[in-house]
Amino acid sequence: MADQAVAGAGDNPHVRTLDALVIGAGVGGLYQLYQLREKGLSVASVEAAADVGGTWHWNRYPGARFDSEGYIYQYLFDETLFKDWTWSERFPSQPEIERWMHYIADRLDLRKDIDFGRTVKSAHFDEVTSRWRVETDAGHVYDTQFLVACSGVLSAPLEHLFEGEDTFRGDILHTARWPAEGLDLAGKRVGIIGTGATGIQVIQTIAPEVAELKVFVRTPQYVLPMKNPKYGPAEVRAYKDRFEELRDSLFTTFTGFEYDFEVAWDDLTPAQRTERLEDLYGHGSLKMWLAGFGEVFFYEEISEEVSEFVRDKMRARLKDPELIETLVPTEYGFGTRRVPLETGYLETYHRDNVHAINIRKNGIAEIVPYGIRMQDGTVHELDVIILAVGFDGSTGALTRIDVRGRGGRSLSEDWAREVRTTMGLQKHGYPNLFLTGAPLAPSAALCNVPTCLQQQTEWITACIGNVIASGKSTIEPLQQTEDDWVAHHDETASATLIGKTDSWWVGSNVEGKPRRVLAYTGGAGAYNDKCKEVAESGYAGFEMA
Question: Which is it for the CA torsion 221, 224, 225, 229, positive or negative?
């Protein structure tokens, strides 16, 4: 199908007419673009950044790296593509990851179909033409039948959280907007707000080079030590030889990782449980969280026992009672928030130049020209302030765009009332709008990202192909279909402890955001089966017109 530069554009030379438009050129967007192009559709991607990579383009902060093993953070649709790239270590760092993203774009010749440096401002569905009109901040317009949002789970950084940010006379920046040229921190007084996965990576990395590092800690995290060996020829050959195994198994596990929950808590004696916990802890990966004991997500008593095991490990490393009080979680259970991997993070606080500031006891009042003022009036003088304060997860990338469906209904207004989707793939009232990494699917938080995004984009590609083959123009879920999925999602989530814990997983980090567990908690494997059932039924519960 031909890509028309001006068709239907009137006198606007910037309108481009397409069969499909993909928002984003990250892990999901690149594969989605490739698939739709292979089907013969006229398709383009629009990307705000200057190059491909998505998360791995923007997150250049010191210490940024995978906490999924590199060999499973891969595309699995092409064996040669998989095997022609070699990772240098188990958990590669951002520069290497970005090079991998460039390798993918070059091997698949994708850049020619990506419009870089364009931020989508609005996307409106035209009920007369049954097409989407998408506009960028620079006035470029796309007229497209299908719109696929691969805009990222964690791509909308939280901003303007503190009074006085604009008055600070030093450097102040969010980790997700780290300058490509880097930032010289040597010998400077640095403050970092936030100790989630990103904050932890920054803290353990920059502590040796700065003159002073003050860490403002609100919510302590359970952490697991990362084991990150370098790979030689033998290790590379070993993981590449597993291609077929990984391709066939990753899409069936609970979280899209190579490991899964296999042992039941009640099947082991107390001594055996401790032995297994020690083995999981020593694995140096997320296995303890994502393939340890599934019961930690459901039963308070078991959650507390496992949580106390991890706390004891952390206390033994921290030693100092004040540090233990500040940095060891006690108010929520292990695994009900994202569990970061770390390398010497806890020991970093034993350095003379590192200070942990418990802002649960004495909160941040405002940012002033020379630092951060606390509620008791204390001012911490700083040269640099790093904001590791997180994102408007799963919904934020789209609610920052003026997305309007049938009858002019607004997606941001809909989600401000209640966060709802149909399987995280579509939304009632928004024909031909497809979603990835969206709420109510595992990809929103509880899945190895490439595993779930490959599955979702392949489903979307097949669905679009079905619409075209049927001679129809649009597809969207019925209201009842969405109601049924939301009810199933909530019933599944309510059985867990996740919804009882404040975190971005439930939207509690964003003021006014309706509370709902964002990720489907029934498991990626079960979700994949449900998606297949829908497709095999001829998209029962979805209306084509």
Answer: negative
State the amino acid at position 442 in one-letter form.
P
Mean pLDDT of the chain: 96
Per DSSP, helices labelled H in 296-419 are: 300-318, 321-327, 345-348, 396-399, 411-417
The predicted structure's pLDDT at residue 14: 74
Question: Exposed, middle or buried: residue 205 (CB in 10 Å: 0-12, 13-18, 19+)?
Answer: buried
For 477, counting Cβ atoms within 10 Å of its Cβ (0-12 exposed, 13-18 middle, 19+ buried), the class is: buried
pLDDT above 90 (res 437): yes
Tens-digit pLDDT profile for residues 217-249: 999 999 999 999 999 999 999 999 999 999 999
Handedness of CA 327, 328, 330, 336 (dihedral sign): positive
- Strands 354-358 and 212-217 come out as parallel
CA–CA distance, 454 with 421 (Å, rounded to integer): 19
The CATH code for residues 15-156+392-544 is 3.50.50.60
Amino acid at 239: Y
For residues 32-71, one letter each, b for 16 or more C-beta atoms within 10 angstroms of the residue's C-beta and e for the rest, the string is bbbbbbebebbbbbbbbbebbbbbbbbbbbbbbbbbbbbb
Instruction: Please check whether residue 380 is in contact with residue 191, taking contact to mean a CB–CB distance below 8 angstroms.
Output: yes
What does each C-alpha distance from 404 to 9, 150, 159 come to in angstroms? 20, 17, 24
Confidence at 2, pLDDT banded by 50, 70, 90: very low
8 Å CB contact between 23 and 120 = yes
Beta-strand runs (E) in 103-140: 114-116, 120-126, 131-136
Buried b (16+ CB within 10 A) or exposed e, 355-390: ebbbbeeeebbebbebbbbbeeeeebebbbbbbbbb
Percent of the chain surpassing pLDDT 70: 98
Domains 15-156+392-544 and 159-221+340-390 share a fold: yes
Count other Cβ atoms within 10 Å, centred on residue 13: 10
The CATH number corresponding to 159-221+340-390 among 3.50.50.60, 3.40.50.2300, 3.90.226.10, 3.20.20.450 equals 3.50.50.60
**Domain ranges within the chain, ordered by starting residue:** 15-156+392-544, 159-221+340-390, 256-319
Q: Amino acid letter at 269?
A: T
Identify which of 183, 249, 254, 265 has the alpha carbon closest to the alpha carbon of residue 442: 254
The verdict on pTM exceeding 0.70 is yes
Q: Give, in degrees to the nearest 5, the angle at Cα 238 between 233 and 239.
A: 105
Over 90: is that where the pLDDT of 5 sits? Answer: no
CA 217 to chain centre: 22
Query: For 368-399, what is each residue's pLDDT tens digit?
Result: 999 999 999 999 999 999 999 999 999 999 99
3-state secondary structure of 120: strand
C-alpha to C-alpha distance for 90 and 226, rounded to whole angstroms: 10
